[in-house]
Amino acid sequence: MTERSFILKDEMGLHARPAAMLMVRMLHVRSTVEIICGDRRADGKDVMSIMAMNTTAGDEVIFRIDGPDEEAAMKEVEAVLETGA
What we know:
Helices cover about 35% and strands about 25% of the residues. It is α+β, with helices and mostly antiparallel strands. The protein has a single domain, classed as Histidine-containing Protein, Chain: A, CATH 3.30.1340.10. A hairpin with a 2-residue loop joins strand 2 (about 30-35) and strand 3. The termini are far apart. Its main location: cytoplasm. It is found in: Cytoplasm.
């Protein structure tokens, strides 16, 4: 299992666009992806679950990824959250 925290920079948090970008990238990995923000949790492969977290700029989110391609999956998360790619 690998885990990393990020501070959200986008003032709207994980709104529709970044949530959809994350979901699309995570659908291609075999690992499980859990997103944690305080007491809220989301399935990283479910866009509605991600958006329901109601995150905003400055929130700390933790990505917990477990599975055979967890390192590659975390690189995908980093690409979306750090560069918006």
